[in-house]
Amino acid sequence: MNLLNYLQDEQPTSTGVEFEVLNDTSDRGRIVGYGCKAPTKFRNKAHQVDINGLKSEDRRNVHFDGYEHSSNFTIGFEIEKNRLHRSSIREYPVFCGFEEDSSCGFEYGQGGYEAVTHILPLLPKSQWRTKVFNMFVEAKKIIEDEYSPSNTRCGGHMHIGIKGMSGNDIIKLLRPYSGIVYAIFRKRLNNRYCDLNPQMLEREYDKYSVARINPNTLEFRLPSRISSVKQVMRRYELMYELVNFAVNDSGKSISVLHRRLRPIVMSMYERDTAKVDEIFELAGHFNKYIKTGKLNKYTCGWFEKWWSYSPSFGAHSHRYARGFDSDNLSNREFFASHYANII
């Protein structure tokens, strides 16, 4: 049996793997009820020409079972929308399907949908990754808010898989480096759909956690809605660097990781250096919080919404560091001035 017979979903050609629609069920091209979408498929297989495009140090993240190459890291996205562009609802190579979700409607019970991707390879810059990104571009009328609008009721959950690891293994691995995720999506830390287990502890299985532990994946629920193709690409890049560092370079200083992430975050923040500097400083404080479970003047305000019109001073007092007091006006003034660029 040749390689073509083993690559059931992706067809190898002289230019490598080609991602195409599966045409295995009509449910992939229509909206179904919540929890009734067609099953996800692993789309992390590749042809030899795709592997040739990877740098030698990145090939350690690919395995070969004698018949086909597969990425050791995978990612999946849930793209929540108030409404889906009507004429664009059809099967796409990137999505396993569409389903109703009233929690992300214009208001609760008024619309609400999500497009769920297949299980995608999580890769560094390469021809193989370009093919993944092309799938996002092909689906732009589902992803872009210009066509399919979203609001703050919507989230952008990301599912991370690592070959040979359980969800508990993955949360333990990524926990020391996840402060950057908290810093970027800081305004979701008090959202009731993603505010549990804020220290990312193992064996905590609450659905509405910052990072939900599944049997074979870790679902980051904290990320905000996805409103553009560029946005989903930058998040993909960020998660590759985070996972790759945790798996292969965990003995190095976290400053090495932050240097790798900086160009990505600069692109996220339209090259605003002041904002990006604050994001990385805040990431360091969140890493400390994840480790110790103690809030201080740098982190407390993000959990208690000090940046909003409806702050909840004292709501997390059981997590305060010794000597810290949210009723102290100087702490609130410090928060407002220190984070002026990102509030």
Keyphrases for this structure?
343 residues; alpha+beta; eight-stranded mixed β-sheet; three-stranded antiparallel β-sheet
Quick recap of the structure?
This protein has one domain.
Number of domains: 1
Written as H for each helix and E for each strand, in order along the chain, the element string is HEEEEHEEEEEEHHEHHEEHHHHH
Q: Sketch the major β-sheet.
A: 8 strands, mixed
Helix content: 25-40%
Q: What shape does the CA trace take?
A: globular
Number of helical segments with 4 or more residues: 11
Strand content bin: 5-15%
Structural class: alpha+beta
Q: Average pLDDT value? A: 93
Radius of gyration (CA) equals 21 Å
Task: Pick out the low-confidence regions.
Answer: 1-10
What is the tally of beta strands? 13
Distance between the termini: 59 Å
Secondary structure blueprint with pairings:
Elements lengths: L2 H4 L4 E3 L2 E3 L12 E2 L12 E2 L1 H5 L9 E3 L4 E3 L1 E9 L13 E6 L12 E5 L2 E2 L5 H12 L1 H4 L14 E5 L4 H8 L4 H6 L26 E3 L4 E3 L8 H20 L5 H15 L4 H20 L7 H4 L25 H10 L5
Parallel strand pairs: 3-8
Antiparallel strand pairs: 1-2, 4-6, 5-6, 7-9, 7-10, 7-11, 8-9, 11-13, 12-13
Helix pairs in contact: 7-8
